[in-house]
Amino acid sequence: MSATSKIILIILLILNIVVLLGQAWPEGAPPFARTVNIIFLISSLLFFLRLLIKK
Which of 12, 15, 51, 55 is nearest to 32 (CA)? Predict the structure, then answer.
């Protein structure tokens, strides 16, 4: 796995933690939680598609 892929995975993991916290504790979710959810879903989709196309 390349260094770029590792960095992208770390970013996706951090975004995933924010998304999960927002789901588990909705009252404590920051006002930008919806944006983080959308960014996470789109970036995950693009990353996985890139992995599929590479192989």
Answer: 15
